[in-house]
Amino acid sequence: MKSDRLLSILLLLQTRGRVPAAELATRLEVSVRTIYRDVESLSAAGVPVYAERGRHGGIALLPGFRTDVTGLTGDEARALFVLAAEGAHHALGLDGALGSALRKVMAALPAPHRPAAELTSRRILVDPGRWLSGPRPAVDLDTLHTAVFADRRLRLRYRHSGETDPRTYTVDPYGLVCKAGTWYLVADRRRRGQLFRADRVVAATVLDTPVRRRDGVELTDAWEALRQQVETRPAGLRVTARVLRSRLDLFVRIIGTALVEPPEDTGGTWVTVELALQELRAVRQLLQFSTSLEVLEPPEARAELARAAASVTALYADVRQPDTGRTAAPVPSHPVDPGPEQAP
Questions:
Q1: What mean pLDDT, rounded, does the chain reach?
Q2: Mean pLDDT value of segment 273-288
Q3: Taking Cα atoms as reference points, which of 235, 191, 237 lies closest to residue 215?
Q4: What mean pLDDT comes out for the span 274-284?
Q5: DSSP per-residue codes, 285-317
Q6: Is 76 helix (H, G, I), strand (E, B) or coil?
Q7: 294 — phi, psi (to 5°)?
Q8: Distance CA 112, CA 40 (A)
Q9: Domains in the chain, start-ordered, CATH in brackets?
Q10: What are 179's strand-pairing partners?
Q11: Buried b / exposed e across 64-82, counting CB within 10 Å, b at 16+?
């Protein structure tokens, strides 16, 4: 454990330059006294490391000192080769750079670790896209990427969900986040955190004004706060429904985020589920399960589904068979088992 910690200190100093002892202690989860003992050990091993006290002090290496030691363990090497396909690197235009970096890492690995790392890259694949999500619009991240790394403000023309006309915002970006295959810009607008889906950005302009972030707030902090807001948003409607057991797995995959708790499959024909929806009209999404699902409560949810079903029935009331002119066969009014589930 100590050798790993010494190597971590060495690599952090190479990357960051002068680092306060308290910060090293926090990152490595040890005491400051332990950090100073580790510095003495590195110095005794011939590493030109020194400590400066005072307000702007810290621990640093002598200028020009570098080491090519990677210090990677077998598991660490394998972890580097478990990478997303057609994901974040492709969207950022870094596919070529990623391949080049992995080749360099492979060359630097100790010989015993190379076969396991290469085999991992051929046997493990991470695909960030979700099933049944449909085609995603092309996303141009170049301008957002430029603003994030140049620490400049952004002027956005942004189209919100359900709106046709974009709005104009001036924001202070923290960074970009790829969540389940969807890119988001995390930024402050009027000193408050806000998420912007990259595929809804109609136009973006990098301003000359330096970014104005909140003191002490990093991308991880801003993202965590916004993520919790989305995931803990209070539901406006609780719905009780029953789902055919043969369709339960498909139902959970599509509507799983709305479930109050995982459904308990007792082995009967029907399984009762509890859903938390944002608004009454959201219950209409349950019509996609046809007679495989029945809403039991509340009455207003059943009434909303009845209105939606009536409007669809009226729309297709006069549809006839194209060849015979005969009207289509009526749909059974009682629930039926639609048969074996099809894989997405």
A1: 82
A2: 90
A3: 191
A4: 89
A5: GGGGGGGGEEEEE-HHHHHHHHHHHHHHHHHTT
A6: helix
A7: -130, 125
A8: 31
A9: 2-61 (1.10.10.10), 74-123 (no CATH), 142-231 (2.30.30), 237-315 (3.30.70)
A10: 182
A11: eeeeeeeebeeeebbebbe
For CA atoms 160, 165, 169, 172, give the dihedral sign: positive
User: What DSSP character marks residue 151?
Assistant: T
**Structural contact between residues 280 and 301, judged by C-beta atoms closer than 8 angstroms:** yes
Residue 115 contacts residue 79 (beta carbons within 8 Å): no
Task: Write the single-letter amino acid at 337.
Answer: D
Q: Identify the sign of the CA torsion 102, 147, 202, 233.
A: positive
**Please, what is the angle between helix 2-16 and helix 32-44, to 10°?**
90
Write out the DSSP string of 222-279: HHHHHHHHHHTPPPSEEEEEEEEGGGHHHHHHHHGGGBSS-----SSSEEEEEEEESS
Write the DSSP assignment of 193-229 as a string of letters: EEEEEGGGEEEEEEEEEEP-PPTT--HHHHHHHHHHH
Count Cβ atoms below 10 Å from residue 180 Cβ, excluding itself. Answer: 8
The amino acid at 173: P
What are 114-171's pLDDT values in tens digits? 788 778 777 777 777 666 666 666 667 889 989 999 999 999 999 987 788 999 999 9
Predicted structure pTM score: 0.58
